[in-house]
């Protein structure tokens, strides 16, 4: 299936590994030109080399820096001739007990996982509307629908972004101009982030990491963790020409772990 986005330009944040890399790979396979960002230059360049080697890949540019800072965002935006596709992604805040978090810890989480995506959307969305095409995908978390007790910082910050997107995505000035904004809510994927979370649970409960991992796998009817490739494939479709009537949605991809109807 041709997704109709060959030659478009995409800015994919935190793309050197994990779910961000999965999204970059799927877009590269569709012939999308990429600007990828991450804080670690070495890992970022290695990912860029792998992306360029994929059949059908377009141009791949790298910007090493912290996307949660004004300087990092400016550098990333400057490297992209035009942003047709924006994939917002940033490392989640650490797990813990809310009693241990001071005001600065909360502000850091909100800045990274709510305000940074909003700033990038603000910088790109009007030009998308003028051109008559735009796809914005925010990688949030399945915890938006089913909060995880040790991820209170993430629960709060990402829920704030979700509420903001619910209103913005439905503005006729955007939706009628073929600009869509959607959120992807990953469940348990085999990423460094998941391993850090499980390690925190292991320390808290006294279980081994293997025990925690097995219990987490069993929470999903699929009885496994998701892969970055699966996540990237969904991201690519949401960014496709065919997905122009899909906006304002929270798409949960969790192997069936969420037990609710809605």
Describe the structure.
It is a single chain. The model has no long low-confidence stretch (mean pLDDT 95). This protein has two domains: 9-187 and 227-252, Rossmann fold (3-Layer(aba) Sandwich); 189-225. It is globular. Helices cover 45% and strands 14% of the residues. It starts with 8 loop residues before the first strand and ends in a 9-residue tail after the last strand. The chain has a seven-stranded parallel β-sheet with strand order 3-2-1-4-5-6-7, sandwiched between helices. The protein has 262 residues and is an alpha/beta fold. The protein has helices spanning 18-29, 41-52, 70-79, 103-131, 152-168, 172-175, 192-205, 209-218, 228-238, and strands at residues 9-12, 33-38, 60-64, 85-88, 134-139, 179-186, 250-253.
Task: For the structure shown, list the relevant keywords.
7 strands, Rossmann fold, globular, seven-stranded parallel beta sheet, 2 domains, alpha/beta
Q: What's the quick description here?
A:
This is SDR family oxidoreductase. The chain is of the alpha/beta class. It contains nine helices and seven strands, in the order βαβαβαβαβααβαααβ.
Q: How would you summarize the topology of this molecule?
A:
Blueprint: E1 9-12, H1 18-29, E2 33-38, H2 41-52, E3 60-64, H3 70-79, E4 85-88, H4 103-131, E5 134-139, H5 152-168, H6 172-175, E6 179-186, H7 192-205, H8 209-218, H9 228-238, E7 250-253
Parallel strand pairs: 1-2, 1-4, 2-3, 4-5, 5-6, 6-7
Helix pairs in contact: 1-9, 4-5, 7-8
Organism: Rubrivivax albus
Family: Belongs to the short-chain dehydrogenases/reductases (SDR) family.
InterPro entries: NAD(P)-bd_dom_sf, SDR, SDR_fam
């Amino acid at each position: 299936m041709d997704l109709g986005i060959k030659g478009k330009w995409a800015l994919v944040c935190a793309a050197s590994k994990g779910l961000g890399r999965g999204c970059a790979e799927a877009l590269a396979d569709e012939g999308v030109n990429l600007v990828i960002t991450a804080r670690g230059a070495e890992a970022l360049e290695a990912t860029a080399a792998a992306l360029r080697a994929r059949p059908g890949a377009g141009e791949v540019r790298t910007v090493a820096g912290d996307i949660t800072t004004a300087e990092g965002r400016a550098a990333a935006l400057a490297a992209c001739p035009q942003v047709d596709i924006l994939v917002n992604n940033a490392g989640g805040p650490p797990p813990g007990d809310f009693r241990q978090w001071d005001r600065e810890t909360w502000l850091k989480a909100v800045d990274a996982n709510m305000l940074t995506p909003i700033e990038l959307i603000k910088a790109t969305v009007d030009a998308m509307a003028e051109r008559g095409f735009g796809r914005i995908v925010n990688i949030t978390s399945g915890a938006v629908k089913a909060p995880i007790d040790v991820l209170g910082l993430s629960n709060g910050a990402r829920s704030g972004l979700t509420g903001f997107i619910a209103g913005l995505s439905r503005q006729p000035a955007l939706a009628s101009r073929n600009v869509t904004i959607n959120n992807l809510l990953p469940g348990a994927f085999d990423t460094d982030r998941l391993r850090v979370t499980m390690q925190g649970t292991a320390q808290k409960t006294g279980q081994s990491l293997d025990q925690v991992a097995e219990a987490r796998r069993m929470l999903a009817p699929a009885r496994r963790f998701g892969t970055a490739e699966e996540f990237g494939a969904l991201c690519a479709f949401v960014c496709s020409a065919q997905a122009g009537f899909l906006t304002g949605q929270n798409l949960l991809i969790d192997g069936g772990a969420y037990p609710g109807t809605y």
